């Protein structure tokens, strides 16, 4: 008999790192905080490196050890997204590189939206709570991209509000998974998959 203790579920860590960082940035994008943009977004840089970035990368590596392909790709990718964003703000703020063109940023966000859209398709086999996080996230990326691609500031603001909902949703899923694991039973249901697994014959 093996005495190896079961590994903890790394997903709540990844969801919390993603959700908390997304809430902070999205509150700024939605215009909920007063002040100049560089001063406001400066708080996101260390948060994106330390929690949104590193926290999710750690979760992704642990999901790899658990054999979870979806968790590995999702957490590692979005952790590195936060590192990209933090490096961008840091290097521009330090004067090491020139500020990027808005349409180039818009294109990058659009491609991230496409990536999130295809990851969302995979969540039809996950619980409905995770499905809703990815639904809100690809909408967030598309609206933010639209704002940077010249479709109006209202799109950027809408992307901020959608991002706020996305972050809160991710934090809720993290909370539910921690509570369920701690109590050893389903205290907070996360919903059954939209596409149930087919039993083989």
In short:
This protein has 201 residues and is mainly α. Helices cover 72% and strands 0% of the residues.
Topology readout:
Blueprint: H1 11-29, H2 37-41, H3 44-65, H4 69-93, H5 102-122, H6 128-148, H7 153-183
Helix pairs in contact: 1-3, 1-4, 1-7, 3-4, 5-6, 6-7
Please, could you describe this protein's structure?
By secondary structure, this protein is an all-alpha fold. It has one domain (11-179). Helix content is 72%, strand content 0%. It has 7 helices and no strands. The protein has helices at residues 11-29, 37-41, 44-65, 69-93, 102-122, 128-148, 153-183. α6 runs antiparallel to α7 (153-183). The longest helix has 31 residues, at 153-183. It is globular and about 55 Å long. The mean pLDDT is 93.
Number of domains: 1
Number of helices: 7
| Rounded average pLDDT | 93
- Specify the biggest β-sheet: none
Derived from helix and strand composition plus strand pairing, the structural class reads mainly alpha
Shape: globular
Overview features:
single chain; mainly alpha; 201 residues
